[in-house]
Specification:
30% strand; binds adenosine-5'-triphosphate; globular; nine-stranded mixed β-sheet; binds magnesium ion; 26% helix; 33 strands
Length: 578
């Protein structure tokens, strides 16, 4: 393809709203054009990248026996009411929903469990038709509160979603395992460095789930990893070993301490330098929203632990939890924020505790009175020990629960997420099949998502430099950038045309820079666009000599034109093998 014929434009400046490299570089290189917040036109070069990712996704799914189909984006409310998800998705604010011209409520699909379950329940009636896994590559709609980072968090984006249907829980686990391998193969073939991690299932639900994280410092997700034990989990889900409770002090009656302006554990450490943080119990107030009510929940945790809001949400079975605002804190405690404690809270406050409080005695806690804490408080004596569950947030330096490794916190971009759903949707929606004995059973389902457009962005987050993008070869918009120094030189044109045609005939895509531009400008654009292999046809064209360079670096090499094809083929083979 001649660059002069492909609407190629670049910008010097990144747009003001571009906070991450992939967004800034893609806009500068003309890959991406913003239409409105979180909604983009995918330009011809980006579309080639997305098509290559889709091809890899399709090949691996087809190889594993999955069937491709296409479901509608426009969905009726009724199926979401049937599955029981309408309220939560509406409350979350993520669902685009509206009344159609006939007064019927509809939504634009953020995910397709309801539609696929409707499709399969009308079609699969016997165990003999199982297992079956269906998938589609389609546009999804989510009214993200903060659309940002370009393709990374759009409000309209391309997703591959697959759904497996099995007769038993064991068979579902086997389908899940197979898809896990499909995912590993896909991300490997895309040329990405990634980590599969244990994950929270969120609003999708189900029993087990894992995310595939592209390793990148700019990732929105924090991951707890341990090199010694191989443990890897999203911090939303991660667990760590709780150190032994601190030794209890001599027993004395609990008493009030004046703690002016001491609202945090750090403030209190300054006032009580001899008291370890493990003997300070914090009480954090949340507003929990349920389908039919709201409730204030007080969560106690040891001073050295933070509360994990995802674990709290799951434990409560709430639609939403958020930190209580000042008015609510005052109502529940009678005090300014920062002095909440378990003794003397308003009656309607539910008190929960993180496991870390177990065994802690003679502790300091908030006094429910401004500028006041209680000291030397004992569970059992001064108050009952509240219901304790794991509500802790893992942090760097924590020890693993299994083995004895040290946890590090790294960052990643979630590009894939797989779930064992069990019978959540099939039971709710009456999707059943006849088993061998003729009994009707609900399907055991799994679901599997890949953010196709996010994969493209994550490849650039992981691979770029000051000068521009560096595409992994298998998903690059073109494999070879052919730069012709002087388009008005007939000898150069003839050699460039020959190289272009030879490579294209072998199935290798070539972007041919045939513009009348200075060398500096052309090399700058080539660096920005990040095509992995570069061939420069210049003044030695008469001797059939060219200059060869890769985008990842190294010096330019002078080669015979006849060496180009084998060089390119070797690079393609190496990218496929790695
Ligand atoms: P996140 O936690 O990032 O909001 P999610 O967990 O809600 O994502 P899933 O429901 O698991 O997303 O969707 C499957 C995949 O779709 C994700 O792993 C991700 O790669 C992609 N994805 C989700 N939301 C977006 C978005 N707003 N823009 C682009 N890709 C997305
Ligand atoms: Mg997810």
């Amino acid at each position: 393809m001649r660059i002069s014929q492909c609407l190629f434009t670049t910008l010097k400046e990144a747009p003001a709203d571009a906070e991450v490299a992939s967004h800034a570089l893609m806009v500068r290189a003309g890959f991406l054009e913003k239409l409105t917040a979180g909604v983009y036109v995918y330009g011809p070069l980006l579309w080639r990248v997305l098509r290559k990712i889709e091809t890899i996704v399709r090949e691996e799914h087809d190889k594993a026996g999955c069937l491709e189909l296409l479901m509608p984006a426009l969905q009726p409310k009724e199926i979401w009411v049937e599955s029981g998800r309408w309220e939560r998705y509406v409350k979350d604010g993520i669902l685009y929903h509206f009344e159609d011209g006939r007064g019927r409520e509809v939504c634009l699909g953020p995910t397709h469990e309801e539609v696929i379950t409707t499709f399969v329940r009308g079609r699969v009636t016997s165990y003999k038709q199982l297992p079956v896994t269906l998938y589609q590559i389609q546009t999804k709609f989510r009214d993200e509160i903060r659309p940002r980072f370009g393709l990374m968090r759009g409000r309209e984006f391309v997703m591959k979603d697959a759904y497996s249907f099995d007769a038993t829980a064991e068979a579902m686990a086997a389908s899940y395992e197979r898809m896990r391998e499909v995912y590993r193969a896909i991300f490997r073939r895309c040329g990405l460095r990634f980590t599969p991690v244990l994950a929270d299932a969120g609003a999708i639900g189900g029993s087990g789930s894992e995310e595939f994280m592209v390793d990148a410092d700019t990732g929105e997700d924090a991951i707890a990893v341990c090199r010694a034990t191989g443990y890897a989990a999203n911090v939303e889900k991660a667990v760590s070993r709780i150190s032994a409770p601190p030794a209890a002090p001599a027993e004395v009656a609990m008493h009030k301490e004046s703690t002016p302006k001491a609202r945090s554990v750090d403030d209190l450490r300054k006032l009580f330098p001899d008291l370890p943080a493990e003997r300070m119990l914090k009480t954090v107030l949340y507003r929990a929203t349920f389908e039919d009510r709201e409730q204030v929940v007080a969560v106690m945790a040891r001073g050295d632990r933070e509360v994990n809001e995802v674990k709290l949400l799951n434990h409560l079975g709430a639609l939403k939890v958020e930190l209580a605002d000042e008015a609510l804190v005052r109502k529940a405690t009678g005090a300014a924020p920062g002095f909440a404690g378990p003794i003397g809270l308003a009656d309607d406050v539910r008190v929960l505790a993180d496991q870390s409080v177990e065994g802690v005695q003679g502790f300091l806690c908030g006094g429910n009175e401004t500028d006041t804490h209680w000291l030397d408080v004992w569970f059992g004596r001064d108050l009952p020990q509240p219901e304790t569950v794991d509500l802790g947030l893992v942090k760097a330096g924590d020890r693993t629960v299994e083995g004895d490794g040290e946890i590090e916190i790294t960052r990643g971009i979630e590009v894939g997420h797989i779930f064992q759903l069990g019978t959540k949707y099939s039971a709710a929606m009456g999707a059943t099949f006849a088993d061998e004995g003729g009994q009707l059973q609900p399907f055991h389902m799994g679901c599997y998502g890949i953010g196709v457009s996010r994969v493209a962005a994550s490849a650039i987050e992981q691979n770029h430099d000051e000068a521009g993008m560096i595409w992994p070869l298998p998903i690059a918009p073109y494999t070879v950038m052919l730069i012709q120094m002087r388009p008005d030189d007939e000898v150069q044109t003839a050699l460039a045309q020959e190289l272009h045609d030879t490579l294209e005939a072998e199935g290798i895509d070539v972007l041919w820079d045939d513009r009348k531009l200075g060398a500096g400008a052309k090399f700058k654009d080539a660096d920005l666009v990040g095509i992995p292999l570069r061939v420069v046809v210049g003044r030695d064209a008469g001797e059939r000599r060219i200059e060869w360079k890769t985008r990842t670096g190294g010096d330019a090499e002078a080669l015979s034109a006849d060496e180009v094809l084998p060089r390119v083929q070797a690079a393609v083979a190496a990218a496929q093998a790695s």
